[in-house]
Amino acid sequence: METQKRKRTAVACHYCRRRKRKCDGRQPVCTLCEEANNSECEYPATEEHKRPISVDQTAEILSRLQRLEQSFTHFASLPPTSHPQPDDHYTPTSHTYPPPSPNPSPGSAFPSPGYGPLSVDPSLHIPSAVATPVAPPTEPCITAPMAIPMSHSTTTGSLLQSHSAKALSGDYPSDVFLRVESKRSLPEPLSLTPVPLSQIICPEIDAEEASLLVDNFFDLVNPQHPILDRDDFEHIYRDVVGNPLQADLRAALVLVVLALGRAAVDTPDLTRDGWLPGVEMFTPALQVLLGTWFNSFGDTILLPQGLYLAALYYSYLSRPLQAWRLVHMASTSIQHYPIRHRSMRQPLEETHTHQPVTRLCWAIFVLECDIIAEHHLPRSGIDQVIENLPFPRCGNPPDPAMLSWLADLSARRLLNRIHHLMYDTASPTTNSATADAFASVSAELSHQLGAWYDLLPSAIKPNLHTASGSSLSVDEAIMVLRGMLISDMGRTLAVILLLTLASLSPVLAEAVPDNDELQIKAISLVEKWAFPGSSIESMLSILRTMRSKYQILY
């Protein structure tokens, strides 16, 4: 005889539970609550209405997941058949690239280079010892993270670690230039020591001179780092200059713009102690920014804009560590905006209101990448914001300077993903790479560089085969790209080192017949910016040592 199932006991109400009494579960009022003159009982929520998942349903779910995994594995194992072109409206989370529109919208975000899937040798991703065949990941360059790996070895100091480089230039630690910069003295006007806002003395501004400096900034600096809209800035500028200067963020933004307008046209004078163009305007601006940063939590965009421009000023003076410190502060300040929008489930849209935030995030990302590509320094996390951020819009009609900047952003994003593909120690890449695999990657990257060039709008596409009469000289180009001076000098040293080593190779010597002339040009270029005690001065010393040894031994 089948035993009768035990009935479930009634759930006690909150009143009986608190007093640890037996509740009869009567509703709406149990017996004890009725005796206590309670008009209604409160019972805890039960799970009687929840339906448990049966074994058959669980098996069906697992079966569907298995079929999805098999389909994905099959899709991932298919070889790439072509190099598709990009859509004019790039979506960071999408990795399919339909053909470009014949007439792209001029106001749209810059077209991201489509770059077909990076055809990487499977051994670059899968150790040869693995017996089970695994499909290599598709599009590793497109899907790789935006962050430069901490373990990357693309710094100039890392290049000096090779045996061939040591034979030419001597033995140096991999962080030689970071050590030099960390020991470099800092003039008092550039000190990062905070000062109370009440003690900051603002300078007097000559309206005529200030107007000229503003023009310098928007003609020479802002096209390379377009974070400010001139119309918006002019409104702030007129209000600040038209009244006695106050120690606030609006005045700080104006002063740092004026300081950059001075630094952009002033050539370095290494014979003059303390070459600090525009420092009389920069120092009070810096003090206001530092004093405000400690008590500001994303209340205004003026603070991260001012901090970024202050970092840029340090870059113009070849002070990479101070530039990194301030761009790190600017990054943590601007990240309040995407975090707030994410928490409110409101993504940053490509609207006029959000464009200053978008442009500033990208500018901070590029400047930080330029610094950490040359020096191993902590990251601010801005790369995580950029992962899901669209490109800035380029206006309607498109501004050629903005198009050039967007092309640089596109190249930087690709370069960072290449860094991650080649140098991320968390993946099996660095453990299983072979010479043939890297040759395959190199060939594919060369193809993608060509694809990037082909996608440039005609308004900014340079002619690589014919010298233009309007082309800048090397010295003029360095003046225009002053914000990346340290990186440019490091690359100059790296290129000359590689070309010199190539000239010593029986296989490659014919490709570098003018190595002697190139060494002389590089030394002449670097010595103009070799500030006493700077890492550029150390680079100059290494170049001269390399040339002397090359002349003696070869």
TrEMBL record:
Keywords: Metal-binding, Nucleus. Residues 106-116 have a biased composition (Low complexity). It comes from the Eukaryota. This is Zn(2)-C6 fungal-type domain-containing protein. SMART domains: GAL4. Residues 12-43 form the Zn(2)-C6 fungal-type domain. One of its GO terms (molecular function) is DNA binding. Residues 76-116 are annotated as: Disordered. It comes from Colletotrichum asianum. GO terms for biological process: DNA-templated transcription. Gene3D superfamilies: Zn(2)-C6 fungal-type DNA-binding domain. SUPFAM superfamilies: Zn2/Cys6 DNA-binding domain. The keyword Repressor does not apply.
